[in-house]
Amino acid sequence: MEIKIPELSLVLMIGASGSGKSTFASKHFGKHEVVSSDECRGIVSNDENNQGATNDAFELLHYIIGKRLKNGLLTVVDATNVQSSARKQLTQLAREYHTLPVAIVLDVPQQVCEQRNLQRPDRNFGNYVIRQQQQQLKRSLKGLKREGFRKIYILKSPEEIDNVTNIIREKLYNDKKDLSGPFDIIGDIHGCYQETIELLQKLGYSIAPVENNGVNLGLAVSHPENRQVIFLGDLVDRGSNSPAVLKLVMSMVRSGIAFCVPGNHEMKLQKKLKGKNVSINHGLAETLEQLEQETPEFIAEVKEFLYSLISHYVFDNGRLVVAHAGLKEEMQGRGSAAVRSFCLYGETTGEIDEFGLPVRYHWASEYRGQAKVVYGHTPVPEAEWLNKTIDIDTGCVFGGKLTALRYPESELVSVVAKKVYCEPVKPLQPEQKTALTHQQQYDDLLNIDDVIGKRIIQTRLRNNITIREENSITALEVMSRFAINPKWLIYLPPTMSPCATSDLPDFLEHPSQAINYYQKRGIQTIICEEKHMGSRAVLVICKDQDTALKRFGIANEGIGVCYTRTGRNFFTNPVIAREFLDRVVKALTKSQFWEKHHSDWVCLDAELMPWSAKAQSLLKDQYAAVGASAQNSLTEVELALQKTLARGVDGVKPILEKFSYKKTAISKYIAAYRNYCWSINSIEDYKLAPFHILATEGAVHVAQNHEWHMAQIQEICQADEKILKVTPYKIIKTQDSDSIQAAIDWWLDLTNQGGEGMVIKPYDFIVYGKGGLLQPALKCRGKEYLRIIYGPEYDLPDTMERLKHRGLSRKRSLAIREFALGIEALERFVRKEPLRKVHESVFGVLASSSEKVDPRL
Amino acid sequence: MLLTITTTHKPATDLGFLLHKHPDKFQSVNLSMGKAHIFYPESSQNKTTVALLLDIEPIDMVRGARHLSGKGFPLGQYVNDRPYVASSFMSVAISKAFSTAMNGKCKTKPELVETQIPLEAKISVLPAPQGGETLIRKMFEPLGYQVKLQQHILDTQFTDWGNSKYFTLELSQTIRLQELLSHLYVLIPALDNDKHYFISQSEIDKLLAKGQGWLVNHPLLEQITRRYLRNLQSLSKLALERLSEGEKIENLEAEENPEQKPRKETLHQKRLVLVLEQLKLSGAEKVIDLGCGEGKLLRMLLKEKQFTEIAGMDISYDELSKAKDRLHWEEMPPKQKERIKLFQGALTYKDKRLEGYDAAAMVEVIEHLDENRLPALERVVFELAQPKIIILTTPNREYNIMFENMKTASMRHTDHRFEWTRKEFESWAKGVAARNNYQVKFLPVGEVAEHIGAPAQMGIFTYGN
């Protein structure tokens, strides 16, 4: 004998003690699927038979069941379940998680139970207990159906129990995960037959009258690419030809070219056809009148068709959900009266608005699911995405249009209504026009729940990245106190690791190690770019204010922003900021950037000089302060020591030498930081050196190699050489020793002239090695520059020796994580995902930068 | 890093006896982070100079002094002025190198100890905090010194960067050597806030020992004590109490801006009292302090029976930890703990935890947000959290002219993004109220001055009509 149960159900084993529930459950279900009350007793009291622990044990039992059902797992309850009150709690739990309750009753003779219990020394309760349980069971049997069990199996003897060979788990009717389209999903039709035909034709379907074969109702519909249609319900009422629409849809569903989910109007019609008393309003009267012309056979077919409709479908491995009024994540693919009701009517608050319509709760604004949800029910002027959901009921019957969404293309196709068939109760046009999309309006405010606590972020480049809670805490403070408007903040740059430590005695860093890193990992071509010593700057710039509003949802904040690596505004003076951004936009426009990239905005990664512009207080309070104190002290010290030496005192010489070295070191240190300082008297004293065209509309340019980036940037720079600076670079072959030597010579040259050093990158933007993503770039800093990092005297042989033991692995792992997160943020923005998704990634970069790591690296 | 002491006492070579250091020898003593060298650049009957040179190992210092990395400058451990200045290291070196002299002992010529001799001390270089030259003079001149100061420029190539905080200091007076040394011992670290070692109870003893006989009468007693003990309130209070021999000294505030702080402090008290008053008046039972900082208002709220549920939110985790400390969170009895909760949050993010309160306080919060973030705050607090009462305070910019030390166009706090006039605040507040169905009225906070109003302003928002 086979038992069939829904794939996702809560199975109650029902039977007296000793009836064989545990044995049955362990035979037919998986280890984790069975949750036993005895085991819970044991967990909370160390004794599986401790009746005193019953309350705690059941609380635990219900908790476990709740978690499993939430996660969509079939669960079997191994407890006597003979009392209706005990079952009630469980069926409620099943309902709460929209799963179906199933009863498997083991109704074996009392003696069998008694005998079995006798053999078990731990079950020392009297037979009267079993007798009582048996009586309760008998009383229960009749009522099980009423209690809401979807399937009930009663096994009356040990033989019958043994005869159960197999438990078959049936898919739910709504499970169409194995179908992935392509689909054309059509919104509320309401009897607009003409428009439906037109729309189908526009979508490429051919519709031909054929002989009625009993299935096709006289219509043959097909698509050359075998596309299928999904109707979102509300086929009938209000419009001029509901019967024709029903015929068309029924024909298509029956021939397998379409799916259809029911709308609230179908439900009401069905009730009416079944003879129930319903109020004839909202266009039902028209339908009934039209149906009067039809044959009783057809009406019978309609009845059957309406009855067969499934509340919602899940397609394409769970990536697409369709339902008339939409569906929350926790209800998708589940079955319960609540799910059905949500699909038909959506979520309402119980209040009635000024037009006499129920106030709808906008579930989509809180939708966080992975699946796209396509729905109708509420007429809207335009179909628009919001949090992966889209309402495509564009009010055809009210004189709007009939809209279809092509899946997976996400393309909207619509035809305009021939006329106003019915005046809407509520005006279709929104009360106030706004330039922002639904998504942008919704994105106006971010939710704290999307950033605090431990977070796991999925990235394309490197799978899941975990952000620790303590880092989120720090990031939240920095983000909300100092960062710019999060709508601008679509990217944060990753940290960059230095190359491995040099083995040459006088160098802490040297290009050989950086080249070697890529060479060893099979990278043939690399690019060496001069490293400018300024401050990292990211520019998000729009062609005009209108783009800022339309694409970024930002009004009254200018055409863009220039921000630091922690998301702060680069310029504290808004007038200078505007002037600077205007110059860059002019250069972009002049170089025809917008046309070339088919974009009205760009995100640039750059270095902004001089260092002293942003780091003014750091320079004054730290760098110059150290220089001034040291130089003035050391001059006096040297003098005093020289005098003492001249007096012929022993032991002075080595100390004099030591302090003379200190004096030289401090002079070199001062010379080093001075290289990166100059005064700003006009906007043209700023120099911007972009090095990545990170993103433009529709593209994150990580598929382009660095030579491409350099070439694009050169064109922009030529448009305004006064403030834009081209970054010199060399392309190096890692297999060619002359080529490598050229890179080293160039580096020595650059650093001898006071340059910071160079950045060495693989030729391609993203490269993987055996162990995953490779470092996107390594910096290699010059000898003198390092004085301002490691201290003026870092080049003393002993000190140098000590410094060479630095560890880089932490820095490198952070660099890769942040790189993946930064690119992820851009890709999400370019895909037009909700702001919270972009913000999550950017926030991740910021949180990661708060990790403790040697600041000198 | 260099201290020289010169005498023209006859014979000047007596300095060697007094210091117990032979003029023709180069000597060194060990310090925890390096060495100090003692040598004589000059030694004759007419004039003798001793030099005390700090030779600090930067690496040792890094290991011992993590706190040197200042906020916002992680490289502070590696690039800092400590090896080059006279700081508390110098005091340690003085006490180690010249311990006999400091203790007033001299075996060979005991009478010298009690003799006042012409002495000149020169320090290269001395860091001085805000107040610079004036402060240094105020510290040394009351002790009878002739003070000569040379302030150094930050960078000769960038003269627009201005002066550094470093001075070469020359002091001269006919005085006992022991006195000079103990003055230097106490006053050098008092000028430099950054003490290199952990400050403990024993610091007080050292201060009292070295300050014996002169510190108690010094006009800058309080400031010196406080600075010497590096603004550690309870410790310096204790030290002051011991110095004042039993007389209690009230309310000593950490100083930053000596001229402004005391006034501001009382202002803050006034403000909190006013906020509390309004909250009590409103009849609210569940209250939330948005931007609670270290929890001053929370502590006041806890004392009132009216408030059954109290919450404090702040963006800074550090401040929240401080608040927990001040509230004695760990030892709080369970009944009290039930009444209060603290959590981190930001007013620019939608947050369910802010809902369900009768009243919210936002004391000096909005001015810490960029103006373009205010619409987000408005939505979070007024539209979504929507408490019945919101008490909000912010500085009144018009009043800034009353602060003597304030530069024009500057703000009261470096983190303030804006400070509003009464008109600006009222226009914002009325807009917020209108958009979110609140009524708003205004109150001055602090004493009202003619034409410019009070130092701060309060908006009281009531939900509904």
Which characteristics define this entry?
heterodimer, A: 857 residues, alpha/beta, Rossmann fold, Purple Acid Phosphatase, chain A, domain 2, 6 domains, six-stranded mixed beta sheet, five-stranded parallel beta sheet, 37 strands, 39% helix, B: 465 residues, c-terminal autoproteolytic domain of nucleoporin nup98, seven-stranded antiparallel beta sheet, 16 helices, 33% helix, elongated
Count of helical stretches of chain B: 16
Could you say how many structural domains of chain B there are in total? Answer: 3
CATH-defined superfamily of the largest domain in chain A: Metallo-dependent phosphatases
Proportion of residues in β-strands of chain A: 15-25%
Strand order in the largest sheet of chain B: 2-3-4-1-5-7-6
CATH class of the largest domain in chain A: Alpha Beta
Span from first to last CA of chain A? 70 Å
**CATH topology term of the largest domain in chain A:** Purple Acid Phosphatase, chain A, domain 2
Q: What is the CATH architecture annotation of the largest domain in chain B? A: 3-Layer(aba) Sandwich
CATH superfamily of the largest domain in chain B: Vaccinia Virus protein VP39
Q: Using DSSP, what is the number of strands of chain A? A: 37
Assembly form of the protein: heterodimer
Largest sheet of chain B: 7 strands, antiparallel
Number of structural domains of chain A: 6
- How much helix, percentage-wise, in residues of chain A? 25-40%
Calculate Rg of chain B over CA atoms: 28 Å
Structural class of chain B: alpha/beta
Give me the CATH architecture of the largest domain in chain A, please. 4-Layer Sandwich
SS summary, helix count of chain A:
29
Number of E-type strands of chain B: 15
